[in-house]
Amino acid sequence: MRRAASVSDYRELARARLPHFLFEYLEGGSYDEVTLVANQADLRSVKLRQRVLRDVSKLDLSTELFGQRWSLPVGLGPVGLSGMYARRGEVQAARAAREAGAPFTLSTLGVCSLREIARELRTPFWLQLYIIKDRGFVSDLIAQAREAKCSALLLTVDLPVSGSRYRDSRSGLSGGTRLQRGMQALARPGWAWNVGLLGRPHSLGNVEPVLGTNTGLEDYFGWIGANFDASITWDDVAWVREQWDGPLVIKGILEPDDAREACARGVDGIVVSNHGGRQLDGVSSTASALPSIADAVEGRLPILVDGGVRSGLDVVRMLALGADFVLLGRAWAYALAANGEAGVAHVLKLIEAEMRVAMALTGRTDVRKIDREIIDER
């Protein structure tokens, strides 16, 4: 395999290895993908101020979040279906994160179940949670998270309904036939053998209790449409809090007023996120939304962010814009698809190395002191 030197290299390797419908699902956004493109473009447009002749021989990239010390202000955010990108992919990614001293977040819509991750990892991890109509199922999943000693719950609130994702219709993932997807899989024999055959079962492990025997990909979007609850309100946040006494983080904040409401509701953190450009197209990129949200929060709770991050330089940009912690999404999923656990581990090392360069050349020796002063407003 060609050695990857960057996340963009891993993206091309993932494209060459995954069946077309899976790569398009990972790659795509909603509608015309305006927000998807803006997430990267707006972040890359953030200019930094280079400072010289400062002692940057010792750099501290570690940070504390939710009572734990992390090697980097970076974690693996939730990516649905990531167990289809590599054999038992969520397990492989979780192992890589553990070794790097970074948090791993399991998606409700992952292939590997919460119990499988807990059994394989044997260390705390984060769980991303959706509110669905079957509140009994949600309560049971929260109970499983407590049993597994998950160290944070990321309640995702920006999917009361699913955005229209044209790519998934065109690729055959949504509305396509099993034969259509099977032919695409056969065109990638390495994936077909290692993941398609040896990676079974291909189920949505966490939602098996409500899916029953219908756990194939053909049920994925149908299940979302039928089960995600459009009536969710802030009162449901309080309902989750009644059952969860650990760190509770609201994921999907894009407006300062919603950030203030989250503070008022007593949650432990927020994630500035537009769901990777996969929900409402045309909303702000996370990089452009972040500064006003940081101003509204005024340090009352930690701000996490995702969207468009493809390098350690991007991480530093997000920290300068007001984030306390950055979640990777597609960046680690590309690496997982290309080279499994080793790929994810390598991406985290790349991120660290790139952060060190960016910090040294902006004169910041501690990630906690990265602020807007390093942004060039000219």
Notable traits:
single chain, 378 residues, alpha/beta, TIM Barrel, eight-stranded parallel β-sheet, two-stranded antiparallel ribbon, 10% strand, globular
Account of the protein in words:
By secondary structure, the chain is α/β, with parallel strands linked by helices. The model has no long low-confidence stretch (mean pLDDT 94). The strands form two sheets. The chain has an eight-stranded parallel beta sheet with strand order 3-10-9-8-7-6-5-4. Helix 1 packs antiparallel against helix 16, helix 4 packs across helix 5 and helix 4 runs parallel beside helix 16. It has one domain: TIM Barrel (Alpha-Beta Barrel), CATH 3.20.20.70.
Q: Tell me the structural class.
A: alpha/beta
Query: Helical content, roughly?
Result: 40-55%
N-end to C-end Cα span: 43 Å
Q: What's the pLDDT, averaged over the residues?
A: 94
CATH C-level name: Alpha Beta
Number of distinct helices: 16
Tally of structural domains: 1
